[in-house]
Amino acid sequence: MTATAAPEHLDRTVDDVARRAQEAFDGLSRTAPGVRAAALRDAAATLADHADELVAIAQDETGLSEARLRGELKRTQVQLRLFAHVVADGTYLDVRLDEADPDFVLGPRPDLRRTLWPVGPVLNFAASNFPFAFSVAGGDTAAALTAGCPVIVKAHPGHPRLSERVAQLVAAALQAAGLPEFTLQLVTSQDEGVALVEHPAVRAAAFTGSQRVGQLLAARAAARPDPIPFFGELGSVNPVLVTEQALQERAGDLLAAYVASVSGSAGQLCTKPGFLLVPEGTEYDDAVVAAAAQVPEHRLLNPSIADGYARRVAEALAVDGVRVVHPGSSRHDDSGAGPGQTWVTPTFVAVPLDLLRRAGDALLDEVFGPFSVVVEYPEGADLAAVVAELFPGNLTLTLHLGEHEAAEAQAALLTHLARHAGRILLGGWPTGVAVTPAMQHGGPWPATTTDGTSVGTAAIGRFLRGVTFQDAPQELLPPPLRDDNPWGVPRTVAARGDSLGW
Amino acid sequence: MTATAAPEHLDRTVDDVARRAQEAFDGLSRTAPGVRAAALRDAAATLADHADELVAIAQDETGLSEARLRGELKRTQVQLRLFAHVVADGTYLDVRLDEADPDFVLGPRPDLRRTLWPVGPVLNFAASNFPFAFSVAGGDTAAALTAGCPVIVKAHPGHPRLSERVAQLVAAALQAAGLPEFTLQLVTSQDEGVALVEHPAVRAAAFTGSQRVGQLLAARAAARPDPIPFFGELGSVNPVLVTEQALQERAGDLLAAYVASVSGSAGQLCTKPGFLLVPEGTEYDDAVVAAAAQVPEHRLLNPSIADGYARRVAEALAVDGVRVVHPGSSRHDDSGAGPGQTWVTPTFVAVPLDLLRRAGDALLDEVFGPFSVVVEYPEGADLAAVVAELFPGNLTLTLHLGEHEAAEAQAALLTHLARHAGRILLGGWPTGVAVTPAMQHGGPWPATTTDGTSVGTAAIGRFLRGVTFQDAPQELLPPPLRDDNPWGVPRTVAARGDSLGW
C-alpha cells in the first residue's frame, strides 16, 4: 500500500480505492469541457513548476539522462495540454442526432441522440521506461481523464518515489481545478494491481510492459464475470527494411543513424529497431562498429530489466551461426546502496535470413535494451512475405528506399506492410514518437492486445463507449445531446426527410 | 460443407475459404468508394428483385410472418444502401493529417497521415432470429464490406436454404459490380465456423447468438497465438422501469403495449422486454391478461429454440413464489416432415423485487421467447441501484415517467442507467430498432462482449484499425491520404505552426 502524506490513504483497501474512483466518476462524467480542459492544463503547469525536483528524482531512480528526462517531462506536459484541446473541441464525442421522422422508409423513426461517453474508472499500469510520459500523468492517464474516466495508476516499481510525488502534485492540481476528489489515485503493489483488474468498478485497463505480464493481466480481465477491455502494449521489434539502392546512395548515414536509434536510452524503447534487413553482400561492419564504439556506457533502468537483457542477449548469442558485429560491454556497479546498477554499451549481431527463420523465438523475440540484429536477405526476396512470416505484429515498420525507387511495386509492398504495424515509416527511424493527432502507437498482436493507440489524440477512443438516448426530454439529456448544445460540440444531424441514401 | 452450384465450392477446405478471403482483401481494400457504394446498392437491388422467392423460403424455414419478413428484407436493403452512403461520404475513415513542422514544440515533427483501414477478412456468425437483417447480407456483413473487409458468413442452421440463396445472389451482385471474387463466402457447418475463428487469415469475428456459444467462440478467439477481436452479442433482458405517476396517467395503454412488445415475433428478439418494473400495489393483471389473450399462436423459429424456451420457462416457473399472471400455451405440431414445429402464446409471471433478488439466474437469465416478468418494487426503491445489482449489462433500458416528472432526480437516474445499457429509452418500447446513424445496439457485458454497435452506421468501426504513414512519398500513400485526395474524403489537418493547445 502506498504511503502518501494524505491520511485517508493510509489504511485504505483496494475496495476503497475502487469505490472512490466510482464515486469520482459520478461528478467527473458531468464536468463541463472547460473545467476538464483547465484541470489538464493545471496538471501540466504543476509538472513544469516542479521540473527540477521531479527530474532529479527520475534521474536517480531510472538512470536516464537529464536531457532525456527534461524532454520527456515536456512531452508529458504537451500531452496534457493537447488533450485539453481535444476535450474543449468535443469532436471526440462523435455526436449524432437523428431527428424523429414519421415518414422514415422503415416506419416512424424516434428521436435518437448518440454520444460517446466515458466507460468508467480506468486502471493504468505504468511503464518502466517512460517515468513521466507513460506513467502516473502520462498519455494513458491524460486520455482517460479527458474522456471523463477517473484513473487508478498502478505505479511501476522502478520509480516509486517519482510516481508518488507526481501523483500528489497532479491529484492536488486536478482537485483544485474543480474535478472530484479521487479523480486520480495511485496504488503501488502488484497484488493491488491484480485485484483491481478484477474489481467490478474498474471498467477498462491500460498496460505497457512485457508480453508475459501483459498476457497474465489480459487473461484476468477476460475471465471476469463481466470481461473488460484490456489495452496492453506488449512488445514490438520494429524491423527496418533497406533496399540495395538506398544503401548505395547513403550507407554511411543510414548505418550511423541505425546505431543511434538502437542505442538511445540504452535501447529501452518500445520502438527500438530490433532488426535491420539489408541485401546480402552489403558491407556494414565497419560503419556499425565505428558508430557503436562511440556510444558511451548507459545505465539500464533497473535490476529486473538488466537481468532480462542479459538473459535474452545470451539466448541470442547462443544460436548457432550468429555472427557478432560489435560486442557490447556490461558492467555491474554495486558500489552504492541497494542491488547495484548495470551499465552497458550496444551489441550488434548479424545473421542470414534463413538462419533467422530457423532460430525462431531465440532471435525473433524482443530484446529490451541496446541489442539489434542485422539480417541479410537474398536478392529477389519477397519482403512482404518475410514480414508476414517473421514479423507479423509491430508498432512500426520502416522502409528505406532509394531516391527514385518509389513506384507501384513499393505501393503494393506498403499495403502489405500496413497489415503488420500501426505506423509505416518511409525513411527515418521509429524511435522518437510524435505526440500529435495523426500518430498511431499500436498495432497487430503482440504490439497491442486490442486495437487502439496509446499515443496521440486518438488514444481517447479506448476509454469511450457509445450511448444512445431515445425520445428523451431535453432536461434529461446529457449536455452534448441537448438542442441548445451548451458544450458547443460539433454534431452530425440526420434530418427529418433525409433519405440517407435510400 | 455448403453445396452451391459453383464448382469451385464443392471440394474446398476451410483453408481454401480463408485463403480466398485473404486474396480478395488485396483488391477490396483498394477499391474506390464509388465502386464499393455501387456494389452495396446492387446487392440491395438484387434482394429486392428476388423478394417473393426469398420471403417464401424464409417463411418456410423460420415460421416468421410474411409481413415481418417483408419488413425485415426491406430493412436489410436499407442497411446496405445506408452503408453505401457511409462509404461514399468517407467520414468513417477519420483521416488526420499532421503537416511536417520543423518548429514543433517537442522538436521537428515528421509528416504524419493517419487513416482507419480495414482489419482484413471478417467471420460473421449469422443469427437465428433475423434471417435477413442479421444473416448473410445483414448488418454485420454490410458494415464489414463497407469497411473493405471480405466476409465469410457462417450460416445459421435454422435457415440453410435461405442463406445459400442470399449468398449466391449477393456474391454474384458484388462481383458483377467490380468487387473481387470471394468478397462474400458462405460456410455452413459448426466445425468450419470454429476452425475459421482460429484461422490466421481471419482478423475479426462478429457473432449474434447465445451466451454459451458466444463465450466458447470468444475464448477461442482470445486463445489464438494472435488474439483477434470478437464482437459477440450474447443476450439482454431489456428492463422497463415504470413510475407510479406514469401508471396513473396511462396504465391501460402502457400494459397493452408491453404485452405487444413481449409477444411480437414470439418474443424472439434481442430487445424483448424481459422485465417490467412497477410499483407495489399496481393493478396490472386484468390488462395483461386481456391483451395476452388476444395474441395468436406463433411458431418458434426452430426445435432448438423451442427446447431452450421450454427449459427456461420451466426453470422460472419452478422458483418458489413466482405468480403466473397469464399462462401461455405450447403446442407441438409434428404433422409435417422433419422434427415438427412448436407453437406458443405468451406467458407472463410476477414477483416482488425481493424474490427476484433471491431467485438469481433462474429468473434473471434471458428467456428467448414470449415470456416476461413483472417485478413489483417497494415505494422509495432506488431504481439505479436495482439496475446496477440485477441488470448490469443490457442492450436497452427503458424508463416510463409521468408527464411532468422529468427533473433533476431523473437526470441523475439516467446517468446511472446509461452505465448499464447502450440505448436508453424515455417511453416507448425497445423492440423495433431503427437503422440510422445515431443507433447504438450494443452494451455492457453480456449484451456485447466488446464495445461497439451492430446496428447503425457506427457499426463499421468494429472492422477498422488505425494506420499512420510517416514521411511517405505521395505515390506510395493510400488514396485518402494523398495531397490530391482522390476519394474526396473529409480530413482534419494539424497545420505547421498550429500550437494544438500548447
Automatic annotation (TrEMBL), chains A, B:
Keyword Transmembrane helix: no
Region (Disordered): 478-502
InterPro entries in alphabetical order: Ald_DH/histidinol_DH, Ald_DH_C, Ald_DH_N, Aldehyde_DH_dom, Aldehyde_DH_Superfamily
Superkingdom of this protein's organism: Bacteria
Residue intervals of the Aldehyde dehydrogenase domain: 11-381
A matching Pfam family: Aldedh
Keyword Lipid metabolism: no
The entry's keywords: Oxidoreductase
Full protein name: Aldehyde dehydrogenase family protein
Origin species: Promicromonospora aerolata
